[in-house]
Amino acid sequence: MKLAQFKTKESDQQRLGVLVGDVVCDVAELARAVKTAGGKPASWLLETKDTLDVIGRGDSALSDINALLGDRSRTGRGQTAGYSLDQIEFLPATYPSKILAIGRNYVDHAIEGGAAPPAAPLLFNKLPNSLSAHNAPIVLPDISQKVDYEAELAVVIGRRALRVSEGEALDYVFGYTLIDDVSARDLQFGDGQWTRGKGLDTFAPLGPFITTRDEIADVQALKIEGRLNGEVMQTSNTSKMIFQVAYLISYLSQAITLEPGDVIATGTPEGVGIFRDPPILLKAGDVYEVEIEGLGTLRNPVVAGE
Questions:
Q1: Alpha helices in the chain (DSSP H)
Q2: For the chain, which residues make up each domain, given as ranges?
């Protein structure tokens, strides 16, 4: 199942969507239509509008949505509550309480930056104000002249995790999505710490969909690619992570309680712009895309700050 948060071009109301074929169905709108037609959808579906609601309810929520989709025929119109992708404006895939990010988690990325592969996960935060969405602009700030891209797999936690073992860690995953860990390199390197350079507004596009865990047979076997204006800049596979997803969840949960909806950005592969010769950095008019096998494509134009 692929879930999204969105609004239509006619309304600012946030909606919960599920991808069905090539359309996004408004879950609450579909539930109301099914009820009107004599069906009995789960009551919470009639008003739901965000992915955190689904995540917090767990597997039973996914069962309820699947049952709802099976009842679409009751409405007499197969596309009830369905919107084509060009009719909607995506919102961030979720609104997590925290975004924990991992640096230098691919050997070749560490090497291209002149650093030794880390002996333990290198942890930093992406701030909530940096959240952005598929198709939303990355805004270049006046205080930075070296803004870079980083294609990454993002893990969405499904239930509270504290001191979990590596063997059971994936049971705590709700699903996976895509994130661009946009980075102001001059601030990141000049500050001597990473929070400001990676926490600027619009510097964490997340989405467009959360793909539920059951759809991904092996999260450590996914092709990951980043493209700048259609040209491949980053290409790798999640099998090349130094610290794999299960290890990261276990490691983080030994010290930090992971809550439903929390996001772990798992690191970027080689090919970032700052370490190229000459450097290739984001400029107004660019478009950066992150594509991960089985998860889709996250696309963001780049604009100058006002």
A1: 27-36, 51-57, 59-70, 107-112, 185-191, 195-198, 245-253
A2: 2-89, 94-304
